[in-house]
Amino acid sequence: MGTTGLGRLGQHGAIVARACQRTRKLTSTLYSAYMKKWQHRKRLITRRGLVYSLVLCLMILGLGGVGFWILEPRAHSLTDGLWLAFTTAATVGYGDIVPSTHASRAFSVLVVLLGLAVLSLVTASVAAMFVETEERQIERDLMQEIGALRSEVRSLRDEVRQLKPPSRSDK
After folding, report:
1. What CA–CA distance (Å, rounded) separates 69 from 166?
2. In the prediction, which pLDDT does 134 show?
């Protein structure tokens, strides 16, 4: 009896299959290690980013409050200066205290620009934390799907092995 195509490929196919399997395992291991490191770094960056943004926000508001207290004659106390800095930085502008001198108006432009930038950073950091939580859930779901696919591939391989005709050396 002649050998079938499957029989001739069987020996070489097994070698190729083992090489592919080892490559997949190595790739999977490297990818998992990379993703774990990246997730850890991303969490640190996100959390630190929020803390840095909040500290920067407080510093700008504090310096803005002191600046308005010094430059604006209607800001009678530091709390009035801080209130004016907050309403200016947040672009709310309630109108109870309004910059009246040229210096305080120019300073308010600076506070608005810095306040918008920093408050945007705080908002982005909080949003990134929510997105990170959702990304982790998606990653968990994907890993479960990959695990299920791997077990299905294993069972299919076992079925193929059982269907293979015996090789020449077994006869």
Report:
1. 92
2. 79
